[in-house]
Amino acid sequence: MLDQLKDKVNADAALVRRGRFLSTQFLIEAGPAQWLVDIVEGKIASIAKGPFVMPSWSFALRAPREEWQKFWSAAPPPGCNDLMALIKRRMLKVDGDVHLFMANLRYFKESLEKMRAERVAA
Amino acid sequence: MKADFEPIIGRYMNLDLSRRSHRIYVEEAGQGAPLLCLHTAGSDGRQYRGLMNDSRITANHRVIAFDMPWHGKSSPPAGWHEEEYRLTSAQYTAMILDVMAALELDRPIVMGCSIGGRIALHLALDHPERFKAIIGLQAGAHVDPYYDLDYLHRPDVHGGEMAGAIVSGLVGPDAPAKERWETLWHYMQGGPGVFKGDLYFYKVDGDIRDRVSRIDTRRCPLFLLSGEYDYSCTPEETLAVAAGIPGCEVTIMKGLGHFPMSENPEAFIGQLMPVLDKISRLAAPR
Fold it and tell me: Structure pTM?
């Protein structure tokens, strides 16, 4: 599900520049599936797929698999188009160091939106 | 190369609001029926640049937008550095009526978005005789906080980056990139704690759920327009308000978000024109 996240984020020089003060590991959960994303100075150094025995992370983003699928669809429906929209609907839970997530909110929003399917011109 | 001036004229005015002297920036364009425009929380009157630059609107309307105190090019009042800014329903209502009096606007159409849409409901309820018509954009009766508002104003988080990132998803998916990022830039420029202070009205003090159904549209016509992609004030919330007010007309705007006039002026004007046409045909009051 997150196979291409690393390459897509690292290929966006402006995004990496905005994240240059950010180094952390965070967890993404889609239903039972988990990934640990390791960010070093705005670049994704690695993404490991769970299950994990003793994962260490600063914060975790947890949502049902179908919510992520809608979020990553080419044209997400209303309420599914943004991480804050998922939070408002109580579908996305942020655990742990929420401060780090909020202080870098634009970086995390735009990184995760990289996984969105391309919109096909009508 | 010759300067390509827009038809918008901006000026500063000095007036007392809530018994304190203020320096307020106000801009306008066009001639005809006065259309007083109220910006969203944490932003300023530039949100209405698309309307002021569109001759379909300005041919028959004098479009006026002022920056609220603390916002845009309006200053906070003297002494601001010692206080926490918090907008209340009473201050907001008085500010609008005082600005109208200062500008000698007789029964303007008032149009507000988000907090401006909420205060439009308050005005419809408490001062209907002062307006020819009231247009609420992204207007709901109440919004519960869905994130910790303290992140908007603390020294270890950049307030401008935070405000822009918080609201970025509220822009609809069809917004042209230029207008989307212009809209977000206004948010990124807000003064420390100002967006948060506005949200005190939006999420706490301005709750009008228990009174909103008492709005009488026979005293002043009420139009509500909401963008489909707004998750702060959802279309369902606007529809719920409209359902409780006989005579209230509601439009759900496809593809638009929380900042219709700023994020996508062209699409918004297409939705607004029929409303303005209808208002222009209204009979004069008794």
Answer: 0.96
